[in-house]
Amino acid sequence: MKKDTVVILNFGGQYSQLIARRIRESNVYCEILPYNTGLNNILEKEPKGIIFTGGPASILDEKAPKCDPAIFDTGIPILGICYGMQFMAVALGGTVGKASQREYGKVEIALETNNELFYSINHETNCWMSHTFNVDQLPSGFEVIARTKNCPVAAMADKKKKLYAVQFHPEVVHTPRGIEMLHNFLFRICGCQADWKMCSFVESTIESIKNRVGNKKVLCGLSGGVDSSVAAALVNRAVGEQLTCIFVDHGLMRKNEGDEVEAFFSGYFHCNFIRVNARERFLKRLAGITDPEQKRKIVGEEFIRVFEEEAKKIGKVDFLVQGTIYPDVIESGSGDASLIKSHHNVGGLPDYIDFQEIIEPLRDLFKDEVRKAGLELGLPEHLVWRQPFPGPGLSVRIIGEITEERLELLRETDFILRDEIAQAGLEKTLDQYFTVLTDMRSVGVMGDERTYDYTVAIRAVTTTDFMTADWARIPLEVLGRISNRIVNEVKHVNRVVYDITSKPPATIEWE
Ligand code: XMP
User: Fold this and answer.
1) What's the CA gap between 502 and 399, in Å, rounded?
2) How far apart are CA 134 and CA 89, in angstroms?
3) Best of 294, 509, 510, 511 to mutate for ligand 1, by most ligand atoms within 8 A of CB?
4) 209, 335, 435, 484: least CB-packed within 10 angstroms?
5) CATH number of the domain that 467 lies in?
């Protein structure tokens, strides 16, 4: 049976993904499409409702982004948010002008509650505003359903046509009743069923992979990270030993990690598991290289080469599994990313393996949903909650040349950091934390001896999307313990510093 779907037309707003997550959290399936998607392609999804997001453009600009106005004649309920509201107003014959006063932040709002969008919500509440323009004249058929001090049309509706629009952002936490408004739109106005559940996703995906693969052969490259593990687990459930997993151990993993990946996957899965020990090859290629981009390129290329050699041994396979997740799909569609760092796992499809089709079982899921699917499949918590680890591994956490000795030193310091964070019970409060080996040496004193040794940096951040991040406020006593242990337990480190830079302007990884 087809699940109820809501289409989110993205006008470029910073909260577009957040809107989608709020809807998925309400157990309704939704997809984000670019604002200029053809109407036929939108209708093919058979949406029960459509949401227009906010966006940075001004609707008064000639080149302002617009979607096909025929969308208003489809009879499908629409909710316009911020820019989405202004577009709706202008497209239907209303006008938009500069606000008497720009509103930004938390604002008191008076709601007209005699409508479905604000059903069961108090008349007076707060909302989160961020706008310079607002609707001056309503399109015909519309009425005002909310006002703020400086915004006389804070929300409007044509109840008959089920067209609603809000100038504020119901998706952010600073609009305390925002989630209820979204629920009202989904369930009261669009009549959606809350039928997007992880257990049914897992079951139906297993079923469809089974049907698609039949008795053919499938290949999966495992990194030990969350996405590829969950993708492999899903395919494995569906086709068992027809799946072969290749784990390329480049020797740039954290302490014990390679062995843990092997122990888990060869034990848990009934698939063919191949671990390729390629540590020396990688080290040889990285010898003498200090430039971060070059390191990334070398690791990426060598990874593909090793994978290719192993895949060739297996011979022709019919399917290749990729752990692509929904944010990758959205981001690759937008095409606006300027190169800050090359991420080797977001390139094109590999053309070096002899396969016919690709399976991307997680293509529709956000990261938190991938984790839920992993738990549903019985993967252990520590794997499902693993922090992100860059494809080029520890090579981008060593400033300067990579040698086995320096890798060993970094692994030990990182292990101490993780151990202390776990003991302090801080694991779930941090989104990513690791140590960096700098190429700086400085003078210290140990016993009565002068030392001239390395400085290690601790990096720990909190973030929701890894596009921006703040440095984590780890308690000073915990930092003190970590520093103490590192300088005492790891030879050739005599100084520990804490990185207190947010992203931007810094990035999370140092290289
Ligand atoms: P930056 O350093 O760009 O990192 O702020 C953002 C997030 O991406 C991770 N990262 C990578 N992940 N392949 C990956 O799969 C890579 O090459 C790569 N480089 C950085 C980083 O750990 C952080 O979570």
Assistant:
1) 19
2) 10
3) 509
4) 335
5) 3.30.300.10
Q: Which amino acid is at 217?
A: K
Distance CA 333, CA 326 (A): 11
Q: pLDDT at position 1, please?
A: 65
* Mutation choice for ligand 1 from 343, 463, 465, CB with most ligand atoms inside 8 A: 343
**CA–CA separation, 418 vs 151, rounded Å?**
50
Are 101 and 136 in contact by the 8 Å Cβ rule? The answer is no
pLDDT at 331: 66
User: Would you report the helix, strand and coil content of the chain in percent, each value rounded to 5?
Assistant: 35, 25, 40
Q: What's the CA gap between 266 and 241, in Å, rounded?
A: 12
User: Is residue 428 located within the same domain as residue 488?
Assistant: yes
Helices 198-213 and 367-376, axial angle in degrees (round to 10)? 80
Token representation of residue 346: 């977001």
User: What is the DSSP track for 127-158?
Assistant: EEEEEEEEEEEPPTT-EEEEE-SS-S-SEEEE
Looking at the structure, do residues 19 and 127 belong to the same domain, yes or no?
A: yes
Question: Are 356 and 318 within 8 A, CB to CB?
Answer: yes
CA of 464 to the centre of ligand 1 (A): 14
Q: Where are the alpha helices (DSSP H) in 26-128?
A: 39-44, 83-91
Burial class (CB in 10 A: 0-12, 13-18, 19+), 393: buried
Find all residues with CB under 8 Å of 366, minimum gap 6, and list them: 17, 20, 21, 24, 325, 326, 327
Cβ of residue 503 lying under 6 Å from some atom of ligand 1: yes
Number of domains in the chain: 3
Ligand 1 atom index nearest CA of 469:
5
Q: Which residues, at least 6 apart from 315, have a Cβ–Cβ distance to it below 8 Å?
A: 354
Whether the bond between 504 and the residue before it is cis, its omega within 30 degrees of 0, is yes
Cis peptide before 505 (omega within 30 of 0): yes
**pLDDT given for residue 264 in this prediction:** 87
Hey, what are 10's tokens?
């993205």
* Rg of the chain taking only CA atoms, in angstroms: 26
Q: How far apart, in whole angstroms, are the C-alpha atoms of residue 331 and residue 336?
A: 8
Instruction: Output the six-digit token pair for 165.
Output: 């629009």
Pocket lining: 80 vs ligand 1, CB cutoff 6 Å: no
Q: CA-based angle 55:57:63, to the nearest 5? A: 130
Name the residue range of residue 117's domain. Answer: 5-189
pLDDT at 189: 98
| Residue 506, domain member (yes or no) | no
User: Within the chain, which residues score under 50 in pLDDT?
Assistant: 334-339, 343-349
